Amino acid sequence: MPLHVTDYTWAQTESTVHISVPLKGAKAGGVDIVSTEEYLKVHFPPFLFEAFLFEPVDDDRSTAKVGNGVAVFTLPKKTRNVWEHLMITADDKETKREIRERALLKRQQKLSAESKQKAEKQQAEKKYALETMMKLEEEERDRIQKMKDAEREKTTAELAVWRLRQKQEAQQKQNHQIQQGGTTKTTGNRQTEIGKNKQGHRNSKKEKIQARPPPPRPPGNIRVTFTPRVFPTALRESRVSEEEEWLRRQAAARRAVSTEVEELQDLTEEERNPDWLKQKGDKCFANGDYVGAVNAYSLGIRLNRQIPALYSNRAACQLKLRNLHKAIEDSSKALDLLTPAAPANAAARVRASVRRGSAFCQLQLYAEGLQDYEAALQIDPHNETLREDARIIRNIIQGSSGHDET
User: Fold this and answer.
1) Is the whole model's pTM more than 0.70, yes or no?
2) Which class would CATH give 3-112?
3) What CATH number belongs to 242-400?
């Protein structure tokens, strides 16, 4: 049986009722509140407070503040008058049971409506994100088509000029041959004899050269240099296999070539370079042009899908644009590409983990967000900013700070 709270206090004006219920050491997160026009319940096991109100109140404008060991309720009256009592004085259990059941049913309906509204809002956000992405892709296709058309017109003009030049050169050559025709006939025999003498002289010289052995090659020294270690840690302290795997994947990423051959042919030399596109995206991000930065990073990803910095930086843009699900997706892809863990990619893993954790927290998925912040702290344990952020998220999960409920 629950223990009923009797040491509550209440006060009223003609328009409002104020009720204070002591929580007896209970945390704010462990308090269950049900409020309707005619019923108020505060349950924090093993204690229970129930109030079958004397007259109806305006539930839509009612507020509750929970914190500092007390729950304070402000209930606007529907009718401006002074109540004789806070609760109805009748001891009819059947009437109270009906009031309680109506209150619980109304609460379930309200929670269902809120859940439906939240689902509709999420669906609207997804639809908006999809429409935005489709619009960006369409703009990108239009831009590429314009580049194709301009290049096609330029090539056609150059081809026409080249054909005209070839035609003019052929005409000039033909005219020159006609003018030189007579002279060639008179000197032809003499040129034939001179040519035979020169050919015989070359053959004789060639035979002499072939009979002579080649001179010996001069001696020399071969200089050998050793490739230095990429990672600064001592060999006995490093994880050689993980480091070599990371270097191999980075080299493969630099050699990767996109399969979209048609579009690559229409891009400029700079636009075919993912590193140049990354720098362009970084400049757009620094200038606040987050959509332009997303376009630059996206084109770089289409050219080479193995560079983790492109995904991680695009996740930062998606956070600014409030595309939280896309930020989580890009951060996760960056973390996949940043494996195996090595000292060279430690800073990049911290950034990707923090960006994904931030997106989770903005979606109110605090447990998932805390995991990413703690993973970042394991990589950079001396980062006080990360430590403070993790502490704040942990307090939110534990419900240690006071909060309002309507």
Assistant:
1) no
2) mainly beta
3) 1.25.40.10
